[in-house]
Design goal:
With about 170 residues, the protein is α+β, with helices and mostly antiparallel strands. The chain is about 25% helix and about 25% strand. A hairpin with a 4-residue loop joins strand 2 and strand 3.
Amino acid sequence: MTTKVHRRTVDLSAYPDLVVIYLGMRVNTLAGLKTLLGFGPKIAKSVDAMPDGLLLHENLVFSLFPPHVGMRQYWRDFETLEAWARSEPHRVWWKQFLHDSGGTGFWHETYFMQGGMEAVYDDMTRDTGLLCFAPKVEARGSMYSARGRARRPETTAFPAPVGEDNLYP
């Protein structure tokens, strides 16, 4: 039997610590549209700076109504992803968002080549992704940080943008 389908696959042996992260922002209120549109140029500028470890960035549209957009990123390893997330400009964005979500919901789901997943959902008015079927728990204690949710050793050179004790005094 012959086929007209050109099938390909990938050899990921050069990426033993590959991390794939999906991120999304969903508009919850009319003000959220301004918040969402304000992030586009910031994210584009950040990606154009080619942070260490970022292998690929792709933009995604999950729905038009309500607006729900996001991205998929491939990182060389968790350490470079975490270093970027805990440095400028992301640290500032995250701190501001945790103070005021600006009428949006935000989520991310992270998948590790070496096994495991972690996710967080902030101000999401409608369940999405893993939140649709997995037991829901508060993002506190060992579940507060991506490092904790991924069950990675707690040692890191980069402090969290917002410590749990600052968010929940």
